């Protein structure tokens, strides 16, 4: 039995690392996860559900690991259909945190919000503003590298 802390979040494995999706209830965590899974092999490499709604997280050897809550393993809520079963990964290393409905989201984010500490592990973070469609933002983050800072006005 896993004794690691649980958090209200969703996680999807994309290639070698997982995206941990956080946000308030109803912010679209499961919807973003479903869209990421459907983009597998098209806009993204291999993707697979790790956990939906409740995630066990654990810091191990300077890495953040995520697992599904045992009772919810392989289950995802799809709005309009209810709870559905999918193949899932039993554990994955988190490589990015996405915060949905984030009040601190900005057109050009400040450097201090580009990372976040979770269970003592510092990770890159992507903020999606309330009402913002997170999938295009996440695809852009995954498919590009940071450029130079814009000139000061």
Main CATH class:
Alpha Beta
Q: Structural class of the secondary elements?
A: mainly beta
CATH topology: Rossmann fold
Number of strands: 10
Helix content: 10-25%
For the sheet with most strands, the description reads: 5 strands, mixed, barrel
Q: How many domain units?
A: 1
Order of SSEs: EEHEEEEEEEEH
Number of helices: 2
Question: What is the molecular shape?
Answer: globular
Q: What's the name of the CATH homologous superfamily?
A: P-loop containing nucleotide triphosphate hydrolases
Report the radius of gyration as a whole number of Å: 15 Å
Mean pLDDT: 90
Describe the strand arrangement of the main beta sheet, using strand numbers. Answer: 1-2-8-5-4
Explain the layout of strands and helices:
Layout: E1 6-14, E2 17-22, H1 29-38, E3 47-51, E4 54-60, E5 63-68, E6 75-78, E7 82-85, E8 92-99, E9 115-118, E10 121-127, H2 134-143
Parallel strand pairs: 2-8, 8-10
Antiparallel strand pairs: 1-2, 1-3, 1-4, 4-5, 5-8, 6-7, 9-10
Please give a structural write-up.
With 153 residues, the protein is mainly β. It has one domain (6-142): 3-Layer(aba) Sandwich (Rossmann fold), CATH 3.40.50.300. Helices cover 13% and strands 39% of the residues. The protein is built from 2 helices and 10 strands; from the N terminus they run ββαββββββββα. The strands form 2 sheets. Strands 1-2-8-5-4 form a 5-stranded mixed barrel. A hairpin with a 2-residue loop joins strand 1 and strand 2. The N and C termini lie far apart (55 Å).
